[in-house]
Amino acid sequence: MSEAIRHFVRVGDREVHYRRAGSGPPFVVFHSSPQSAAFVLPALMPLAAQWTLIGIDTPGYGGSDPLAVAAPSAADYADAAAETMTALGITRAPVYGTHTGAHIAMELALRHPERVAGLVLDGVSFNTSEEAQERYDNYAPEFTPTADGAHLAWAWQHTRDQIVFYPWFRAEKNRRLNAAMAPADYIHDIVLWKMAAAGYWLGYRAAFSHDSRAALYNVPVRTSVVAKEGDVLAPEAKRLTDLPEHIRVLEATKDAWLEAIRDCLAWCETGDADVAPPSMPQARVDTWRRYVDVPGGQRLVRLGGGAGKPLVFLHGDMSSSRVVLPMALASGGPFVALDVAGNAESDPLPESGAALTAYAEDVRGVLDALGLDSFDMCGSGAGAALALELAHQDARAGKVVLSQPVLPDPAARDDYLAHYAPPIEACWDGTHFLTAWHMLRDRAFFWPWYRRTREAVRRAEPRIDPGRLQLRLTEWLKGRLTYGDYVRACLSADLGRYADLGSRVLVTCRPGDRLEEDAARVVAALPGAATADAPDDELREAAGFRAFLDS
């Protein structure tokens, strides 16, 4: 058994995110909505001893770009899957799909039978036309982020009810599922995937509008419909009668489920003997993503802006490379933005509680892997400390922009370390989502955010757009248990260590903001540092970096 490694592959104008594990013939896996391949692959990992597992994130889910279709059908998703297999060099392979992923897998076999050596449908709905319409209309309501965070409470309740009833909107005795409530961490992950998807409802609607019964009876390849004990969709397999010889139904207990999947694979026809190793992601015109392998894990980076000396963006607390991406694009030149270890899509450092020097060394390893000979930097918020430490360590570093730095007075440091970046533990009732939401909102009103006193009032124009907050929330909570190590390392920075960097540094801050105190302290500690007012619009702020960098 091996670990699943994350990759991107270019498919037309889209980036497709997938996970790969094992060796041998390829076995292509499609997940359920609203999750990603990270949800379905762990249970299949014992198969990696004989197969190369390829878990593909459905377009719009996980790390995959959405399709350029307002309401994709199962056929649209299936065609996209075939294109992804081509991009991965997979000519023919057994295909697995669960729940909404089973509809994609089934349609793939129907539309591209030459690509599918066998089909494993692990839980699939075979609705009547009335049921399909009812579920299409009610199962996956759309939602829009609201300023008060009410959508978070709705998403939590929606997910819990899906565990209690099927369908969840029919809260009736005969619809009650014989199952315990799932752990809070599990529900948290589902809600997070739901909020991060580019329209979580699209995959469900594609499934409920898919005539799965007609599709199944017309699939020309060997097909196993698995009815797993406890699966909400297992009873629907009993609706299938008079199946052709190449289609069968397998009932499996929870303990015997993996052996049933092995049996399905043994029943499949022969596909490709192996699959080529992953290729380097191709560059796009605006920005593209890739993972960099470093000791202890993978780091996600975003690159763009063409050739030349890049500006490396180091995000601050409760943030990620995706959050700072608009600023990177507005900076007017080549850039590299990365998720710092333990944040968003980057694995944490091997040791908890690492010092700032370790985070800087980790970033250096990423930049080494990218082959950079020289670079400038922009550190935002608490990330300003990481930018200074990296400039101190690495002779390749040129100029440094500290965008609204968070570097507390040594007298206040213990207070910051104790309260600024608490772990976000999943609560059974989902209230931790609302806590996190208000932590983000209160950053716009008070500084530090946790003080909420008259003396802590911020006078700068608040940035509380619900969509922007939603993006930041989902990115931050991907690393909710490890982000604090990074923040505390940054808050512990000793400015005296960087006094010789002053002539290479620009410090920005919004006039009248309480963060001016931190900015003034940084300028005093770095003789020769330049200063600039940061406009309320971060895109105009980024455009203003260029004059400093080019001077």
Provide tags for this entry.
eight-stranded mixed beta sheet; 16 strands; 18 helices; alpha/beta
Describe the structure.
- This protein has 551 residues and is an alpha/beta fold.
- 36% of the residues lie in helices and 18% in strands.
- It contains 18 helices and 16 strands.
- The strands form 2 sheets. It has an 8-stranded mixed sheet with strand order 1-2-4-3-5-6-7-8, sandwiched between helices.
- Helix 5 (150-164) packs across helix 6 (184-196).
- The protein is globular, with a radius of gyration of 25 Å.
Q: Could you give the count of β-strands?
A: 16
Share in β-strands: 15-25%
Whole-number radius of gyration?
25 Å
| Biggest sheet overview | 8 strands, mixed
Question: Structural class from helices and strands?
Answer: alpha/beta
**What helical percentage do the residues reach?**
25-40%
Lateral strand order in the biggest sheet: 1-2-4-3-5-6-7-8
Low-confidence stretches: none
Shape: globular
Mean pLDDT: 95
Distance between the termini: 54 Å
Describe the secondary structure blueprint for this structure.
Layout: E1 5-11, E2 14-22, E3 26-30, H1 37-44, E4 52-56, H2 74-87, E5 93-98, H3 100-111, E6 116-122, H4 129-138, H5 150-164, H6 184-196, H7 201-208, H8 212-218, E7 223-228, E8 247-252, H9 257-267, E9 287-294, E10 297-304, E11 311-314, H10 321-330, E12 335-338, H11 356-369, E13 375-380, H12 383-393, E14 397-403, H13 413-419, H14 431-443, H15 466-477, H16 483-491, E15 505-509, H17 516-525, E16 530-533, H18 538-550
Parallel strand pairs: 3-4, 3-5, 5-6, 6-7, 7-8, 11-12, 11-13, 13-14, 14-15, 15-16
Antiparallel strand pairs: 1-2, 2-4, 9-10, 10-12
Helix pairs in contact: 2-3, 3-7, 3-8, 4-7, 5-6, 6-15, 10-18, 11-12, 14-15
